[in-house]
Amino acid sequence: MQQSNINIIPEYRNGFFIFVSALDFIESNLLEDFSQEEIARACYCSLSSLQKTWKYVTHMSVKEYISKRRMTLASRELLETDSTVLDIAMKYRYNSHEVFTRAFKKVWGVSPSAFKREWKGSCELYPRLNPEYLEGAYKMNVKKFDIREFYDYLKSQAGTYVLCFDIQHLMVTNNELGSEAGDKVILEAFRRINEAAGEDILCLRMGGDEFVMITESTDASEVTAIAEKVLSQNGNKVPYSGGMVEVSLRCGVIVIGKSLKYSVLCDDLNKVLERARVSGKIEFIS
Description:
A 5-stranded mixed sheet has the order 2-3-1-6-7, with helices on both faces. Strands 4-5 form a two-stranded antiparallel sheet. The radius of gyration is 19 Å and the shape is globular. The protein folds into 3 domains: 10-62; 65-118, Arc Repressor Mutant, subunit A; 148-284, Reverse transcriptase/Diguanylate cyclase domain (Alpha-Beta Plaits), CATH 3.30.70.270. Mean pLDDT is 90; it is low at 1-10. 37% of the residues are buried. By secondary structure, the chain is α+β, with helices and mostly antiparallel strands. The longest helix is centred in the first third of the chain and has 19 residues, at 10-28. 51% of the residues lie in helices and 12% in strands. Helix 1 (10-28) packs across helix 3 and helix 5 packs across helix 6 (97-108).
């Protein structure tokens, strides 16, 4: 694993190493049956230290992260293979169709069979976290996902437009209404983006509230029309257990460079979305 581009101050360094070791263990064993105690042993720390560190860095529990990652990978298999729901449930270590379906509905909002019939587009709702990109040395929060498996495809699209979206007020939603409402907002935002993209355009979640759509287009008017289709739904609400919550997004547009670097992609995404936050309009940077 590459080193973080943030210098972690000494009192946080041990926690950072616990997190990175736990992340590697989890991602290497998603198809295996393991306990949180086994993760802690692999990290040379206590179970309580593991759980506290993970929650502090990711704002979710270890169990929740494992479930969201497994459901992201399982959703791919539902759309891309002929495997049965039970076969996929067993592969991802769920001991029954019913247990798997409950876990799947918690992440995707529908049953696996309904998802297979209805979902259009990318399934990258919860990619692997990327510890190279932290909010800051003192907060030590991971804010970016790892999309390196898509690099070859991204490089092949040099010179084309990427639509960058972020969710408005997601932190407020999480703080005031809870993480369940926040997860519903994230899912609805991803659904809208995928729906506007169609089935052949790749959409990825880049950060907690950030998404990109690889349009394969060099036509500014075409990508503007796609962005407007997404933004036309701003203000529409979705249900959660406490009532209804509003979902609104912002959009900026960047161009994939010939020499693609993840850090540059992240910087450009942040820059164009900051412009969109200030102007309230769809912003372009080249």
